[in-house]
Fold this protein.
Amino acid sequence: MNINRRNFLISLSTTLGVMTLNGCQISEDNSSSSVTPSTSPNDTKLAENLGGFQLTPLPYEYDALEPYIDQETMQFHYGKHYAGYIKNLNGAIAKYPELKDKSAEDLLGSLNTLPNDIRTAVQNNGGGYVNHKMFWEIMTPNGGGKPEGKIATAIDESFGNFDSFKENFNAAGGSRFGSGWVWLALGKDRKLKVISTANQDSPFLTGDYPIMGNDVWEHAYYLNYQNRRGDYLNAWWNVVNWPEVNRRYEQAVR
Ligand code: MN
């Protein structure tokens, strides 16, 4: 190898090295100690080169939520859809370095102050990032049952009892036309409410705090349930991680 080519390659790898380091900022809310990093072999690869916002770990294996959510759905949902939102979010904010230290929640909460050309991308992909980050964590293989702690009391006070809350939630998820989410959110008035949002719209956009949400995009259930969204909505309660939902509620009311 002649000396010029060698110098060029060294200079190129140094440049790439710096770019990689700059791209490795750790997402600020990626540190929950209760989350065990997935041992799935693909995850390390998936996390590479995404940029400032990183793929948060899936706290269980892809097949851990079966039979309620199947392995293949989880693989595509986490590895393709979730990773895609993060990549696109990083792409949108890359040209505005002044935004790179903001949390995704802050970006969504102040969408109207962002540069015009990235608002839609942040709404869709920042929403996709924040919504799914919550979604993985409020599910668990040993889930289901009834709510516990302060959220249990709050649900009873707001909806009468747990069953009527579930009915309310399933009805809102079932009647969302097209793609979207159904939420239990804490409003600005500090009251709990069931709401539904379209696409990847986050409750943070309107100043509400998402306590828990279920993904009713077809990508979340179609491989296993096809058009039976109602069956998916019913089955989903078997994987809800109530301690984590309660933790989010306590954080929201603090
Ligand atoms: Mn999804």
Summary: Residues 5-61+69-137 form a domain with the Helix Hairpins fold (CATH 1.10.287.990). Residues 77, 81, 132, 215, 217, 219-220 surround manganese (II) ion (CB under 6 Å).
